[in-house]
Design a protein that fits this description.
Distance between the termini: 40 Å
Length: about 120
């Protein structure tokens, strides 16, 4: 079982940028797809980005054009570059293996808080 540790969150103003990192406890080379998820208080957790390889990525409509997901298998790390942040992006962000629609890995990390506010 691979576990993940997220970091890079913080408080930013609307229009600002953050880069989130997700470090895995094991080798992610054989993980087919990784995803970034977010959950705001009182709301359902949602998948915002998924990556198989640099040429095979997917994004939720709400973040398309603003967020970029990438992975560095040699560093066992997945990144989420977030630009043009909006207040509605405020949430706890998690990474996990993406196994299919509505299916993720069995263990979630602590996540990293992203707050977008003026």
């Amino acid at each position: 079982q691979v576990h993940f540790v997220e970091s890079g969150g913080g408080l930013v103003q609307p229009g600002g940028s953050l880069r989130l990192s997700c470090v895995a406890s094991g080798n992610i080379f054989n993980i087919y797809a990784m995803g970034w998820y977010r959950q705001a208080p009182g709301k359902q957790r949602e998948l915002v980005a998924r990556i198989i390889s640099s040429s095979r990525t997917n994004y939720a409509d709400s973040v398309k054009g603003r967020f970029t997901i990438s992975r560095d298998n040699a560093k066992n790390t997945v990144y989420l570059q977030m630009n043009s942040l909006k207040p509605e992006d405020t949430a706890v962000y998690y990474c996990n293996e993406h196994l299919g629609v509505g299916v993720a890995g069995g263990y979630w990390g602590q996540g990293t808080q992203v707050t977008v506010s003026s």
